[in-house]
Design goal:
One of its GO terms (biological process) is signal transduction. This protein is an alpha/beta fold. It is built from 13 helices and nine strands. The mean pLDDT is 90. The structure holds ligand C2E and magnesium ion (MG) (3 copies). The site of one magnesium ion has 4 residues, from β6.
């Protein structure tokens, strides 16, 4: 009976485990081929000034539709690239694409900025700073046009080397944002010792803020703390006007979410900027 149970368990679990592992291997092998990089696309989601209602920047969000696998969620292929050793190359492609695109859009909206998400492994790469400088130079952009978003995960590595690199980027005029704040384990201490200018409150806090008093208290407290340390606050995942008004009363600085816009393909952002469409539509 013991044997039989083991066999059943084996039959039941083995295929799905293998399925997950082989899908990851498949993604990694696709990343190694040039065609995977050709299929990669970048979408852009606006960040809205909570006071004026104007777009101040766009966040670049990688998209990958593969002929065989279909849409692959970004966290899945980013993790696969981190584990498979392709994240540095992939990250460079995304950085160059986003910078070149911003340079185009700045002809229509000169003050526009771009945020690019950065994996901790990219930051640990010795060539990271020159990769960024190169992408900016290629696009003819000043460092002030670029913001880098890093997650709390990075702080866990909290090496002097990382801190040194972040300080160096900041001193060049590149803005640093801590992403998904509240979702992980970052100590509040990091907020004051690292050169962040923006704090993005995790969307899980914002989405349930109307239903859970606890989340309202946390969001208010995080915002006050961030402001007292000189950081601006971004609320992610704003989906309703009720939440947007609440965040305005909390003096949140910037908002991002489906209420204003989903991440958009290049052509949609371009025509929006060209047509001078009043934005956001309901402001
Ligand atoms: P993130 O940087 O926190 O990006 C915000 C995510 O929330 C995006 O998902 C965006 O589409 C989604 N979002 C924005 N507003 C709303 C909303 O109102 N409601 C809901 N439900 N979702 C909203 P996406 O594009 O699937 O990206 C997921 C994560 O994958 C990102 O989280 C980021 O950590 C990572 N990622 C995406 N692109 C890149 C990239 O180019 N490089 C790196 N290293 N990571 C990336
Ligand atoms: Mg982000
Ligand atoms: Mg986030
Ligand atoms: Mg996230």
């Amino acid at each position: 009976a013991e044997n039989q149970r083991a066999r059943i368990r084996h039959c039941f679990f083995a295929p799905s485990m293998e399925g997950i592992a082989s899908r990851k291997l498949k993604i990694q092998s696709l990343l190694n081929t040039g065609s995977a990089l050709e299929e990669l696309d970048v979408y852009y989601q606006p960040l809205i000034d909570a006071t004026t209602g104007h777009i101040v920047s766009f966040e670049a969000l990688a998209r990958w539709h593969n002929a065989e696998l279909g849409f692959i969620p970004p966290p899945e292929f980013i993790t696969a690239a981190e584990d498979g050793g392709q994240i540095v190359e992939l990250g460079e492609l995304i950085m160059q694409t986003a910078c070149l695109q911003l340079a185009q859009w700045r002809r229509l909206a000169p003050a526009l900025k771009i945020s690019v998400n950065i994996s901790p492994l990219q930051l640990l790469d010795p060539a990271f700073e020159s990769m960024v400088a190169n992408a900016l130079q290629l696009a003819g952009l000043p460092p002030q046009a670029l913001k880098l978003e890093v997650t709390e995960q990075l702080m866990l590595q909290s090496s002097d080397q990382v801190l040194h690199k972040l300080n160096s980027l900041q001193s060049q005029g590149i803005q640093l944002a801590i992403d998904d704040f509240g979702s992980g384990y970052a100590s509040l201490n990091y907020l004051s010792s690292y050169p962040f200018e923006l704090l993005k409150i995790d969307q899980s806090f914002i989405m349930d803020i109307m239903r859970e008093e606890r989340l309202l208290t946390l969001t208010r407290t995080i915002t006050e703390l961030a402001h007292s340390l000189g950081l601006k606050v971004v609320a992610e995942g704003v989906e309703t006007t009720e939440i947007a008004s609440l965040l305005q009363t909390l003096e949140c600085d910037l908002m991002q979410g489906y209420l204003f816009s989903r991440p958009l393909p290049v052509a949609e952002v371009t025509s929006m900027l060209e047509n001078g469409v009043p934005w956001p539509p309901n402001a």
